[in-house]
Amino acid sequence: METTIQSIIANLNDVLTNENFVGIGSTRKAFKYKQFVIKKYVHEIGYLQTKNEAAIYEILLTRDLAAHVAPILYVDKHLMIQPFYEQLPLCNNSSYDLDLQEEKRLTVDLKEVLSIINQELDGFDFRDGGNYGLDDKGNLILIDYGMTKTLYENKWVPLAEAGILPQIAFERCQSCGIEKEIRTYGKEDLDRRCVACGKE
Fold this sequence. Notes:
By secondary structure, the chain is an alpha+beta fold. It is 28% helix and 22% strand.
C-alpha cells in the first residue's frame, strides 16, 4: 500500500519512533519513514525555519530552480514533511564544512540557487555538509535552507548564549567514548553525552 502524506499524519505515533529517528539539530528533530523525512519542531525557531523554507521554495519554483532543493510536501505548526534524500557521509561521526569552490557534486544550477538564497533571501550556513543530501544522480541537493542571517542573529544566537538552544560541539562522548557532535546548553552544561546515549 502506497504511503501518503495523509497516512503519515494519521499515524504519527507509529511514525515518530526511536527506530525512525535519523538526526536532530537545535530546533528540529528528523525521522525517516519510507521515502519521506518528517521534521518535528523542538523549538518555535524550527517552525520559523520551515516557513522560510516554504517561502524560498515558492520563489525557486517561479525561477525553475526548485529541483535543486528538497521540496516542501507538507507544513503545519508542529512538523514538516519532505522527500528523503541520502545524507552525506559523516566525517568522524560529524557533519563537516564543504569547500564550495572545490566540491564536484555541486551543480551549476545549485550554485545559482545558493547565490539567490544568500544574496536575495538572507540565506545562511551553506558550508555545513549536514544541510545537503544526494539526489539520484549523486549530485548535492539542499535539504535544510530555512535559517536566515536575521533569524540566526536575532533569535537563535541569544537563545543559544542563554543556554536555551543547544550549540553543537565536536567532542568525545563521556558515555560511549566516540568523538562526535555533542549538544551543549550554555557554558554551565557539563553533560557531554551524545544524542545516541540519551542527551536530548
